[in-house]
TrEMBL record:
Residues 7-323 form the FAD/NAD(P)-binding domain. This is NAD(P)/FAD-dependent oxidoreductase. Residues 362-468 form the Pyridine nucleotide-disulphide oxidoreductase dimerisation domain. Keywords: FAD, Flavoprotein, NAD. It comes from the Bacteria. Belongs to the class-I pyridine nucleotide-disulfide oxidoreductase family. It comes from Streptantibioticus parmotrematis. Its cofactor is FAD. Pfam families: Pyr_redox_2, Pyr_redox_dim.
Length: 478
């Protein structure tokens, strides 16, 4: 080893999760080293949340203007693709992490650049860019916050074809003439939306029966209608069996299992995520390389003696969302701080040391047109968990605020109520602008709010939020 250093806590991964966990541990008075092998700020900052939403927002703004007489006449027919891509580049900091690295140092954390691997209990060995090796020893805890990578299927010709994953889809410098998107989840529908708006001819190939299978069925149906209206071609119950690209700049040919072929200039495979644990040294602490890291509600990894190893964010597979990773980081940081100071952990389900929201109140927004937003379980998931539920649906177009928001507004809201406790457990909204409704639903679900109390949360008129009153009336009158 060229260098050896000891800290209270070593965090592997400097994405939003790792940054938050390190910050919370430091706030508890602990010394912290943060290890990063790529860009400080992680997937979200450069290849996911920020660049993808920067690509999507211009389309949404233009679509909203087109729904309003007077505004539609004032806007152009198409987006300026070069301007959209330039703004995307700004939000991705032009793929430079100087600002994020400065934040880490300014927060009192030590940044160690290089590839970190576990090297036995409480030890992380880092191979640095200059070829040296640094051994970091943790007095109290090591936290793995390495996130995920795109999972690609094992198909003939795929490895040599140079296909897009989510990284290429959010960072591409040119608009492809023809784009095939393989998948039906969030990445697939968002990127189909973005690149179609920028001028690509987009074909969406979906293995299942519809889009967004983890949300209420009507969410995928309404998003599919929105995509189709913009010209996206959607084929359900179709899988790709082979990929062929004879040269780097040549078109890609997809062989379909239903027969026939599809030719595109680029192909995005949005077919899931895999944990970044295959080269992490897990075998040195008795865990299997490449596996998701199983944790308890305090984000401590199970199956490792000594309660010193933590995993937060996507790598533990509890909720693959940036905001949930940051939430877990706050929990784990508080736990590490309490344990280091000899304080007892609070066992309460909604206390400071348990990530209960990962199970009960996970929010998510899909930034398509229309938007789809949900928190808590779907009606089916709640029933499969043994709950007796009442389901209330309401047509968002019937809310006064929706009609004012834009002509021909289409949308739907669903409220899932536990029939025994009469508490709200799940909410889904689909429609233009509903992403900004979601936090009110998240607060209500996380607070386990009784329906009787929600009557006293009066929505402002005339806003789309009035849907809350309509849902309560429908529940009362069911």
């Amino acid at each position: 080893m060229d260098q050896e250093h000891t800290y209270d806590v070593v965090v592997v991964g400097a994405g939003p999760t790792g940054e938050n966990l390190a910050d919370r541990a430091h706030a508890a008075g602990l010394s912290v080293a943060v290890v990063e092998s790529e860009l400080v700020g992680g997937e979200c900052s450069y290849w996911a949340c920020m660049p993808s939403k920067a690509l999507l927002r211009p389309h949404t703004a233009l679509a909203e203007a087109r729904r309003l007489p007077g505004a539609r006449e004032a806007v152009g027919a198409t987006l300026d693709a070069a301007a959209v891509l330039a703004r995307r580049d700004d939000f991705a900091a032009h793929w430079k992490d100087d600002g994020q690295a400065e934040w880490v140092r300014g927060a009192g954390l030590d940044l160690v650049r290089g590839h970190g691997r576990l090297d036995g209990p409480r030890r992380v060995a880092v191979d640095t860019p200059d070829g040296s090796r640094v051994l970091l020893t943790a007095r109290h805890a090591v936290a793995v916050c390495t996130g995920t990578r795109a999972a690609l299927p094992d198909l003939p010709g795929l490895a040599a074809a140079g296909v897009w994953t989510s990284r290429e889809a959010t960072s591409a410098k040119e608009v492809p003439g023809r784009l095939a998107v393989v998948g039906g989840g969030v990445v697939a529908v968002e990127m189909a939306t973005a690149w179609r708006a920028l001028g690509s001819e987009v074909t969406l190939l979906v293995r299942g029966d519809g889009l967004l299978p983890r949300m209420e069925p009507f969410a995928g149906e309404l998003v599919a209608e929105g995509l189709t209206a913009t010209g996206v071609k959607i084929s359900n119950r179709v899988s790709v069996s082979a990929v062929d690209r004879p040269a780097p700049a040549a078109p890609v040919t997809l062989t379909l299992d239903v027969g026939g072929e599809l030719v595109a200039d680029e192909v995005l495979f949005a077919t899931g995520r895999a944990p970044r644990t295959d080269d992490l040294g897990l075998e040195t602490v008795g865990l299997a390389p490449g596996d998701w890291l199983t944790v308890d509600d305090s984000c401590r990894v199970t199956g490792v003696d000594g309660d010193w190893l933590y995993a937060a964010g996507d790598v533990n597979h509890r909720a693959l969302l940036t905001h949930q990773g940051k939430y877990q980081a706050r929990i784990a940081g508080a736990v590490i701080g309490a344990v280091a100071q000899g304080e007892p952990l609070d066992p309460a389900p909604w206390g400071p040391h348990r990530a209960t929201a990962d199970v009960e109140a996970v929010p998510q927004v899909v930034f398509t047109d229309p938007e789809a937003a949900s928190v808590g379980p779907t009606a089916k998931e709640a029933e499969e968990a043994g709950r007796r539920v009442h389901v209330v649906d309401y047509d968002l177009a019937q809310v006064a605020g929706s009609a004012l928001y834009g002509d021909d507004y289409r949308g739907r809201a669903r409220m899932v109520v536990d029939a025994n406790s009469e508490r709200l457990v799940g909410v889904t909204f689909v429609g233009p602008g509903v992403g900004e409704l979601l936090h009110s639903a998240t607060v209500a679900v996380a607070a386990q709010t009784p329906i009787s109390r929600l009557w006293h949360a009066v929505p402002s008129y005339p806003t789309i939020s009035e849907v809350w009153l309509r849902l309560l009336e429908a529940y009362r009158d069911r």
